[in-house]
Amino acid sequence: MKQQIVVSGIGGQGVLFVTRILAEAAIEQGMEVLTSETHGMAMRGGTVISHVKVGPFTSPLIRTGQADIGLFLHAGNLEVHRGFLNPGGVIYMNTDKGGDAETIDATRIAREHGSLVIANLVLLGFAVRQGGLFCDAATVEAVLKRISPAKQLAMNLDGFRLG
């Protein structure tokens, strides 16, 4: 199994947490994994992008036109980072609008659940349940149980399951 995943959002949306979850899920399944992230102006709400490569790769960076999956936590980043996706790549996007992507209004769902910080996990749960990612829900939940701070575990699991 080889899969190249781009995770895109803005500072504070949990791009790096989703990246860590995906990396840990790959390790949990005995797969090789490489990650790389670019923070940019993340602390000021700027763009954050990470690359996750699952399988036998030698470089952590995804070249233009090579990503199999795009997880877009911020719909505005689609225009900037779409170029990483290969022609058959699948986009999972947090938005309240339709389009040429698999979409879920993760922000609305998280807000209705009382915590905007779980929107990233709602999107991740949606992508996993759609069968687009290399891992399954049980693996991601095991990772969440292992890496989530005790005070946030229930909320993180709820967010993932809402997706």
Please provide a written account of the structure:
With 163 residues, the protein is of the alpha/beta class. It has a single domain, classed as Pyruvate-ferredoxin Oxidoreductase, domain 3, CATH 3.40.920.10. It has helices spanning 15-28, 78-81, 106-112, 119-129, 137-147, 153-162, and strands spanning 3-10, 33-38, 47-54, 67-72, 85-94, 102-104. The chain has a six-stranded mixed β-sheet, covered by helices on one side. It is globular, with a radius of gyration of 14 Å. 40% of the residues are buried.
CATH topology heading: Pyruvate-ferredoxin Oxidoreductase, domain 3
The total beta strand count reads 6
Domain tally:
1
Instruction: Write down the secondary-structure element order.
Output: EHEEEHEEHHHH
- CATH class equals Alpha Beta
Q: Which stretches are low in confidence, meaning pLDDT under 50 for 5 or more residues running?
A: none
End-to-end Cα distance:
24 Å
The average pLDDT value, as a whole number, equals 94
Name the shape in a single word. Answer: globular
Strand content: 25-35%
Fraction of helical residues? 25-40%
Strand order of the largest sheet: 2-3-1-4-5-6
Backbone structural class: alpha/beta
CATH superfamily: Pyruvate-ferredoxin oxidoreductase, PFOR, domain III
Which architecture per CATH? 3-Layer(aba) Sandwich
Radius of gyration: 14 Å
Quick one: biggest sheet? 6 strands, mixed
This entry's quaternary arrangement is single chain
Number of DSSP helical runs: 6
